[in-house]
What does this fold into?
Amino acid sequence: MRIAVFGATGRTGRPLVEQALGRGHEVVAFARDPADLPDGVRDDDALTVVDGDAYAGDGVAAAVAGGGTGAVPVDAVVSVLGQTDAGPDDLLTVAGRNVLDAMADHGVERYVTLVGAGVREPGESVSLGGKVMGSLLKLLAGEVLADAAAHVEDVRSSDTRWTVVRAPRLTDGAHTGEFRHGTALELGLRDTAARADVAQFLLDCLADDRYVGELPKVTDR
Ligand SMILES: NC(=O)c1ccc[n+]([C@@H]2O[C@H](COP(=O)([O-])OP(=O)(O)OC[C@H]3O[C@@H](n4cnc5c(N)ncnc54)[C@H](OP(=O)(O)O)[C@@H]3O)[C@@H](O)[C@H]2O)c1
It folds into this structure.
């Protein structure tokens, strides 16, 4: 499969790119600064790098189109974009629209994106710990939560075959391959997810065409 990765230089994006290449996929890595991609992957023949800015929209269409002259559009897009300290509060919403528009233009249908577990489905059952965490998040990172929720609304109303993966607090723990996932998982205050395992789960969703039109959660075992 040929996969465009937005957020390829991030803490989830880097293991995601490494694992995707390790699983035999071709990867179009979108990066503001390609030098921030993991050292081991830059010379990989299966890697194409497209530089640009997903918020401004520069380079987004080129990445979805497969990068380079004569390339064919990718089969799928994964977004692990994340707000940075100095960056805009509406990154996921605006960049997400740029990506979804480019997908529509190039006939690319499969989209997998990562947001925090604080994004809820209407009527979803939430544990007490989850409710406390949700209130804390609204208080401490209300803009991040609102941005992710707006992105998810856009994704839901797109014509893509989408999966929204939701994760609790991310850690840089080792890739174990051992994690839980499901649409009805109730997460508490102490739940975490190792970014490398989240990366695996995002790729599993693509490879097995799982959770299409759903918002699964993923957490450490
Ligand atoms: N932190 C948590 O506990 C937690 C929990 C659940 C979900 N999440 C969500 O999971 C996602 C990934 O998290 P993470 O920790 O892996 O993120 P991260 O390490 O901060 O990486 C963010 C990525 O987004 C890229 N990016 C930001 N603005 C961009 C732009 N305008 N154009 C192109 N790329 C841009 C960054 O590029 P540069 O390298 O150039 O900066 C980087 O590659 C985020 O949306 C986050 O909100 C986080």
Q: What stands out?
A: The chain has a mean pLDDT of 95. Residues 7, 9-13, 32-33, 36, 53-55, 80-82, 84, 87, 91, 95, 114-116, 144, 167, 169-170, 195 surround NAP (CB under 6 Å). DSSP finds five helices and ten strands in the chain. The first strand starts at residue 2 and ends at 6.
